[in-house]
Amino acid sequence: MTSSSVIELKDLQKHYGSTHVLKGIDLTVSAGQVVGYIGPNGAGKSTTLKILIGMLPDFTGEATVLGMDVRTQALDIKRRIGYVPENAALYDTLTPMEYLQFVGQLYELDNAHIERKSLDLLRLLQLADHANARMTTFSKGMRQKVLLISGLLHNPDVIFLDEPLSGLDANAVVLVKEIIRQLANSGKTIFYSSHIMDVVEKISDRIIIIAQGRIIADGTFAELQQQRPESLEQLFAELTGNDGQTMVAEEFIQALNL
Ligand SMILES: Nc1ncnc2c1ncn2[C@@H]1O[C@H](COP(=O)(O)OP(=O)(O)OP(=O)(O)O)[C@@H](O)[C@H]1O
């Protein structure tokens, strides 16, 4: 690993049974970069993230985070990374405060520190009024905010976000985008997977497109645009072989009307 590289993948391959999902991913991410990791459904984005956070040890190739091997040093890595999944099972009979207390204790944070920080973060995400309400009745966006806080509570150096804006309202999206930007400015490394192209375009220093388990484009948005001067959405559609959506939509409507 070079001195500032935080994530390194070498010939990363993953099979689920006989299905070859990742077919050789090579990647080096430097400290402070915001990497947008995008690709069509089923391309292997979540699988890559799960390998990087030590959830899937059964892969071939090499994967290190902060210079540590994800196979053998997963626990040490987990202390220094945050992970915000798209849909995690929250213990929703708990209140946000109880849940964050539980998560903070797993990271061995001091109880008073957890309480103070949780209240602050819940307030900033407009959840102060619900801090002590059971999460069973929470909307998707409210749950997503709690998940976001729980992934950041221990102030991790590297943050893995898998569709973190899922269910958030427009104001919350703007706020979380700004939080991501400021986290990166403070030196955190962010590995961000999403389908929301305009957000990826705006927040990423570097965009990596994967399709069918391989990297098919890697660069800043400006670099990718040099190949084709168009929006990330159009570029994505072309590179991943999904242009012609208008025709597909027309066929869909025709099929509905049959
Ligand atoms: N636990 C599993 N067992 C078997 N196959 C799996 C498992 N998890 C994922 N897959 C398969 O691996 C492939 C990649 O899945 P993955 O979730 O990594 O894709 P993705 O790029 O994150 O997709 P999406 O954009 O839909 O979230 C898919 O074909 C999926 O069906």
Automatic annotation (TrEMBL):
Q: Which domain of life is it from?
A: Bacteria
Q: One Pfam annotation, family name?
A: ABC_tran
Q: What is the lineage of its organism?
A: Bacteria, Pseudomonadati, Bacteroidota, Cytophagia, Cytophagales
Question: Keyword annotations for this protein?
Answer: ATP-binding, Nucleotide-binding, Transport
Q: Which organism is it from?
A: Spirosoma utsteinense
Enumerate the spans annotated as ABC transporter domain: 7-237
Give the matching Gene3D superfamilies.
P-loop containing nucleotide triphosphate hydrolases
Molecular function terms, GO-annotated: ATP binding
Q: Which CDD domains match?
A: ABC_DR_subfamily_A
PANTHER family, per the entry: ABC TRANSPORTER ATP-BINDING PROTEIN ALBC-RELATED
Protein's UniProt keywords contain Transport: yes
Official protein name in the record: ABC-2 type transport system ATP-binding protein
